């Protein structure tokens, strides 16, 4: 929980609250229906997944670069409900300074280990906030690839007047809103909704969609 939410006195309550809020966002966006197949990008130890056990979704896949968190999620969530699958990926991250996991594959070169059009929905909660624009663009492109036409994704960013690392931080990144929208468009996604941050949170949220093909409209 500390690796996901940071050191704070209300850690357990905050961790649980955020997971519930994210699950509600998915539900309100129509992403937790009986035929939904959800991808949780940077799932950690199942902060969101634990809130989806009682949902009617068809399937859930989560991946993370931290093997310990994946092992915990497999033992405590996947073992309880076989709709849920967790996978470790050996991706390089700025968080290696925090958790000692150096990774092998650069984020800007990483290929999601799923076939095209596997998922109806995806979540990237506080993933792109810790990734440079090249890595985030790659992940957005892979998200577009594994989503079915009409599939949706929630993604959060720290927006700012410039794109790059936040001064004085080794693992937090700002991005200009225009750069986000350009990257989204470049990979073939569309912005359906934009939610500015609600203090004290700094996360700006984009609800994205892979457009339907012409024959499906």
Q: In CATH terms, what is the architecture?
A: 3-Layer(aba) Sandwich
Compute the gyration radius: what is it?
16 Å
CATH topology: Rossmann fold
Q: Helical element count?
A: 6
CATH superfamily: Vaccinia Virus protein VP39
Total domain count: 1
Mean of residue pLDDT? 94
What is the 3D shape?
A: globular
Approximately how much beta-strand content do the residues carry?
15-25%
Helical residue percent band: 25-40%
Q: Write down the CATH class.
A: Alpha Beta
Structural class: alpha/beta
SSE succession: HHEEHEHEHEEEHEE
How far do the termini sit from each other? 43 Å
How would you characterize the largest beta sheet?
9 strands, mixed
Q: Which regions contain 5 or more consecutive residues with pLDDT less than 50?
A: none
β-strand number:
9
Summarize the structure.
The protein is α/β, with parallel strands linked by helices and 217 residues long. The chain is 29% helix and 24% strand.
Write the layout of secondary structure elements.
Elements: H1 2-5, H2 11-28, E1 37-41, E2 59-64, H3 67-78, E3 84-88, H4 96-99, E4 119-124, H5 133-146, E5 147-159, E6 164-165, E7 173-175, H6 177-186, E8 190-195, E9 204-209
Parallel strand pairs: 1-2, 1-4, 2-3, 4-5, 5-7
Antiparallel strand pairs: 5-9, 6-7, 8-9
Helix pairs in contact: 5-6
């Amino acid at each position: 929980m500390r690796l996901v939410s940071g050191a704070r006195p209300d850690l357990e309550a905050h961790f649980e609250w955020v997971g519930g809020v994210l699950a509600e966002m998915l539900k309100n966006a129509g992403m937790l229906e009986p035929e939904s197949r959800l991808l949780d990008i940077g799932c950690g130890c199942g902060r969101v997944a634990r809130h989806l056990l009682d949902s009617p979704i068809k399937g859930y896949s989560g991946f993370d670069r931290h093997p310990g968190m994946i092992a915990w999620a497999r033992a405590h969530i996947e073992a309880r409900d076989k709709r849920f699958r967790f996978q470790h990926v050996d991706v390089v991250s700025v968080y290696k300074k925090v958790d000692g996991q150096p990774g092998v594959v650069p984020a800007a070169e990483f290929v999601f280990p799923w076939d095209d059009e596997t998922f109806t929905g995806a979540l990237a909660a506080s993933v792109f906030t810790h990734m440079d624009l090249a890595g985030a663009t790659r992940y957005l492109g892979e998200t577009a690839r594994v989503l079915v036409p009409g599939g949706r994704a929630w993604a959060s960013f720290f927006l700012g007047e410039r794109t790059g690392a936040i001064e004085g931080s080794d693992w937090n990144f700002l991005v200009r809103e225009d750069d986000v929208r350009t990257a989204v468009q470049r990979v073939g996604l569309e912005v359906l909704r934009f939610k500015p941050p609600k203090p004290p949170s700094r996360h700006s949220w984009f609800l994205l969609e892979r457009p339907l093909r012409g024959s499906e409209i």
